[in-house]
Amino acid sequence: MDIMNSKLRVDAVLSVDERGQMVLPKEIRKRAGINPGDKLALVSYESEGQVCCLWLMKAESLLGSVKESLGPLMTALATGAEEDGQ
Question: What is the tens place of the pLDDT at every residue in 9-52?
């Protein structure tokens, strides 16, 4: 995903209750295709020792991103190991 060309916006402001729980608004869940039982990954970004950004994404999307990013690297590493006789 090219973050510079994506449509970033604030869709909602969430409150955290005393148990640390939040509610994603129904409209956001509907637009994102989030259904009961879906797994979400929480991704954080840290700057200067403090977490400043949090992203929620479907776990399956995260796994796809990891495979897309690491797949070619793992293939290259495996090919390099074979060439080195390992």
Answer: 888 999 999 999 999 999 999 999 999 999 998 888 888 999 98
- Domain segments of the chain as ranges: 3-83
Structure tokens at 63: 């796994």
Phi, psi torsion values for 11, nearest 5 degrees: -95, -30
Beta carbons within 8 Å of 52's beta carbon, 6+ residues apart: 45, 46
- DSSP label of 18: T
Residue whose C-alpha is closest to residue 38's, from 30, 27, 46, 48: 30
What lies within 8 Å, CB to CB, of 48 at 6+ separation is none
What's the pTM? Answer: 0.60
Distance CA 27, CA 12 (A): 10
R_g of the chain computed on alpha carbons: 18
| CATH architecture assignment, domain 3-83 | Ribbon (2.10)
